[in-house]
Predict the structure.
Amino acid sequence: MGLLTMRVAACLAALFGASTLVFAQPAYPSRPIALIVPFAAGGNNDVSGRILAQKLGELLGQSVVVENRTGAGGAIGAAAVASARPDGYTLGFLSSGPLAANVSLTRSLAYDPRKDFAPIARVTTSPSVLVVAASAPQRTLEQFIAEARARPGAINYGTAGTGSSSHLAGALFDSLAGTRMVPVPYRGGLLAINDLLAGQVQAVFAPILEVMPQVQAGTLRALAVTTVGRSALLPEVPAIAERLAGYEILTWNGVVAPAGTPPEIVERVLGAVKTALADPQVVAKLRELGLEVALAPPAEFGNYIDRQIRVFADLTQIAGVEPN
């Protein structure tokens, strides 16, 4: 090789080497990450999402900022995640509603939970609680079932709306117990709880986070939880499944990214989630809310979403709910 050729080769190598440095992508993450929560501030999904976001920010070295995109049973926030750029800077902290139940509740869903997300990790599960007013005559689950069977149509239970988890919980209860209660829809679970306290309805199947203050204050009585096992927050309260085999209604939360997000970014976020959920302080904060860590990695979480879509399809049929 001649001297001139060697010099040209050296110059080209230096040029392309420099261009590689100029155009190399910065390590992820290099700027703040948006974590979309599809429900209003203060609820189960929001509070647990903020606990996780704070810890993820520490582990990833960038702020993880919660954005509440509310409406349509979580569908608006979920659609925002699905349509976001798949670069790891928009993630969703989504729950059983937008990822599973909405498939059967909405005719024209703006996203497909099976195709439009890259599952990263299921994070928590939590029960709802069958509660009655402290002044109610039913002191046990057995007494409640006996009265509901003896007086068909006499027990009204408040729900967070037609097709909500609280509505489906009551419908499954009726199906397995051979009872006939009357669902009363409200524009949100807290309104149903207020009317339970006021004596307008006789029962509510409410997320544990929403009723623990009243249960602890003695204004509401917890008769049973809706998960297969008992809750660490209410260890003396039985699970409905102890009396009605096959009963289970739970809420769950998980982290997803838009479909097409690079696998290395999914793995980076998954690693941070795993580390966060191994932190005793994070676990303690979640358990104070009645949430149990239920980590599932991407493939397992994706399969779980698929199974839950089928579960909610069955529940909406039991409840006789027509999609909107």
